[in-house]
Amino acid sequence: MRKLLIANRGEIAARVITTARKLGLETVAVHSDADARALHVDMADEAVHIGPAPVAESYLRTATLLAAAKATGADAIHPGYGFLSENPNFAEAVSAAGLTFVGPPASAIRAMGLKDAAKAAMEAAGVPVVPGYHGADQTPDLLAREAQAIGYPVLIKARAGGGGKGMRLVETADAFADALSAAQREAQASFGDPAVLIEKFITSPRHIEIQVFADTHGNVVHLFERDCSLQRRHQKVIEEAPAPDMPADVRAAMGAAAVEAARAIGYVGAGTVEFIADGSGPLRTDGFWFMEMNTRLQVEHPVTEAITGVDLVALQLAVAAGAPLPFTQDDLTITGHAFEARLYAEDADAGFLPATGTLTHLSFPDGVAFDRAPVRIDSGVRQGDAISPHYDPMIAKVIVHGPDRETALRRLSRALVETQVAGVTTNLGFLKRLADHAGFAAGQVDTGLIGRDIEALTSRDPDRQALALQAAALSALGQAAPAGSDDVWGMNKGWRLWGQATHSVALSRDGARQNIRVTYLGGDRFDIDGTKAQATAQDDSLHITGTTAATLSVHADPTSITVFDKGEITRFERIDTLARETGSGAGSDAVTAPMPGLVTAVHVAPGDTVEADAPLLVLEAMKMEHTLRAPRAGTVAEVLVTAGAQVNNHDLLVRLQDDAHD
Ligand code: ADP
Predict the structure, then answer these.
(1) What gap in Å lies between CA 469 and CA 473, rounded to an integer?
(2) Catalytic, out of 9, 15, 232, 296
(3) Which of 203, 226, 255, 465 has the smallest set of CB atoms within 10 Å of its CB?
(4) Which of 144, 171, 200 represents a domain boundary (last residue)?
(5) First CA to last CA across the chain, in angstroms?
(6) Looking at residue 640, which CATH number applies to its domain?
(7) Ligand 1 pocket mutation pick from 116, 150, 159, 291 by most atoms within 8 angstroms of CB
(8) How far apart are CA 216 and CA 492, in angstroms?
(9) pTM, rounded to two decimals
(10) End residue of a domain, out of 574, 607, 634
């Protein structure tokens, strides 16, 4: 193996490339139109364009990917996770093209591809499975009878399922019929296969999965467990390894069952056997059941790397090249404890709506990748990149390691505080509140934890919200102050000039406009809408005592102000200030673009007379509309753009007549 093509994008492509380079392999990235300048493209030695943004026309195209491998002389393909990683036809096509597929044989992927067949195979291999029905007969009456026999509550699952789709919890018999048709509809829509299985719903379930590894020489080991019980709607949010309060005998029993599962299907490479465990009391050797096997690397693999010191991607590549596993089961040990939090572009506080936009500011705690560092950040994006609607909205994985669970959790909380994202709404605050959750800290994890406390986990402290607004108002005025325009804050210089003046600033948050009146009282004292506040700025942080006291960080750009408060991020859009900043100030003749954007409307023509502040044109930038206004009363001399024009920062848009000379 000399040259590896990574048939994926984003964070996982970046992760695989990092290890491949360490091992001295040449790397080939593939990318869609939308990813032409993506991080993974920059990191690879070569990159091949494979089509337009939609995945069906790019990342899921087997023939195009194989052609890219051929054109670049790659001799192996790593599928990452998602996309084609669990597609047995892809694995076969790669092998048929004479290339090495970094993953299991197609037969093993197929054996685990459908949940019903997988459960049957595992039952035959003596692996405990969740009691339930996984037969071929899908007659609704029969399914209802089976559910009755299993005993409520039951879980209906799409046999082709993944990502929690096509899954329904049914508590009572009278709710079964509706839940069944909903699950079937969703399964048909998502997987083109309406077939379902029914399982006993395990109450207080814990999701505990075992990382397995097999080579082509018949060796199979496990690298212990990960606890992925912190889930929202069956989706993992924070994962950890090892599982809290895992007794040694249960670990050994689960590990042995997972190794058995892998052996039973002739597995090769990295795989994960997912179990559901009864978490209503201490874990028991007879209290866990096979759910499914993921025949690929998992998103949460870094926590296993952190506690074992094994680079799982390096091991995948070695095994794919035919090497035997470099260790036996007895060589493997657990060191310390690790967590991973998934940072997504989504508005957790508003029903977890996915968010898009440009990452105008992105900073992470200092991390060292792939070593046993206290903090590791796996990310596929950089500041300035866009989170588009085409792909998974993951921004980064924040991974921490510590000598024990308590230390690791403290480090997670700290790492989240040190993570700053502006321009795109994220779930950071939600993750931080979870990291600080008392039950989680006590290790009382089950898949219902988030759901039970969702209210508290998605609400902010109103005092701190008010404080964020106060900080944003000061920042907005600090920026607008005449003498302080260069540095982000420019505060002390600028503000002193205002004397006792009262200024008004308009900001909007989530579309709600707020006018804030700020009176400078001298020194570091202000009156902000009737609240007495004290504020001092240093570097990029602002120490403010208002509704409450805190040291905040503020990121200001031409359209918005983002306040970072210990993991809570609040974004305010600027109103008005833009118009004021336009051109070279009031009285000027020129109206220039305050930022790059698209002209969406032009309200004036040469010869028009305008009042001061009259709207001249509308610029759309950063997903917002900004009205650019006349800096003074006068006559329009020139309009240099039309609607639809793309303009750059400082481009001249409209010129007023120089009345003194006309
Ligand atoms: P998917 O493949 O769609 O992700 P899984 O079978 O892996 O579905 O299950 C996803 C999650 O649903 C699990 O992590 C667990 O939280 C929950 N779950 C699955 N099966 C059961 C069950 N029998 N009882 C209780 N919860 C379950």
Answers:
(1) 6
(2) 296
(3) 203
(4) 200
(5) 75
(6) 2.40.50.100
(7) 291
(8) 68
(9) 0.84
(10) 574
